[in-house]
Amino acid sequence: MIEWLGVPVAGAAHAGDVDQVMALVHWLMLVLLVGWGVFFVYALVRFRRTAHPVASYDGLRGRWSAWLEGGVLLAEVVLLAFFSIPVWSARVDAFPSERESVVVRVVAEQFAWNVHYPGSDGRFGRTDLVLVGPANPLGLDRTDPAAQDDVTTINQLHLPVNRPAIVYLSSKDMVHSFTLPQMRIKQDAIPGLIQPVWFTPTEPGEWEIACSQLCGLAHYRMRGFYTIHTQDEYEAWLVEEAAAQAGP
Q1: How far apart are CA 197 and CA 38, in angstroms?
Q2: How many CB atoms lie within 10 A of CB 116?
Q3: CA dist list (Å): 166 to 106, 107, 131, 178
Q4: Is the CATH number of domain 99-246 2.40.30.170?
């Protein structure tokens, strides 16, 4: 089923569990599609005008429809209670510690993804709304000692492979949807809230960050890229970017 659906490459440790749920949901949808198609053809033949020139106001009598509806309801309950909820619960329970993870902030706005890395000291520098502008979309205060080694990017997210990544997601203006299809990640960025999202990349590569919420007339511009490096490549990139942004 996953091959038929043509889903993107599975690039995260939890992708297999998500794909299993998606496959089961689509099998159920396929059964319903075929079932409703057969019933539609049956109704066309069974109640054709030539066989029933006079309308019957009593209709069909029987319990088979109730049994079928009950079966569909039972299948949906099983999918929810024994597959979907356990997958979600397991991810909540397994939320990694920041010490063993790469932690970044992603702040969405019309129409860009602003990414903030804490640098080698592991601390995010202070931000201030007064400092927000075209050249400083996050309002990062470079006079703060903790901000000296911070790295900021626009529409570019870099992470190492085989290490948990925690993304603290927020929005400056309206609801956006942070979507990494290969990581099986999709989470709304909501103004006034900081939503943590985590995953462990298992495949190096470069893919697209998508916004799957209509966020304005230039929604088509809400497009970024994320790159999964080896650990050495990621550390080299971080050092290079920190040196370039430190200034004179």
Answers
A1: 43
A2: 22
A3: 10, 14, 26, 13
A4: no
Q: How far is CA 130 from CA 6, 138, 183, in A?
A: 46, 10, 35
Q: How far is CA 113 from CA 56, 110, 172, 180, 223, in A?
A: 61, 9, 10, 13, 8
pLDDT at 67: 87
Residue ranges per structural domain of the chain: 2-93, 99-246
pLDDT tens across 160-169, in order? 999 999 999 9
Residue type, 97: S
Q: pLDDT for 42-72, tens place per residue?
A: 888 888 888 778 877 776 677 887 888 899 8
Spatial distance between the Cα atoms of 9 and 184, rounded to a whole number of angstroms = 10
Separation CA 179–CA 209 (nearest Å) = 6
Query: C-alpha angle 166/7/106, rounded to 5°?
Result: 25
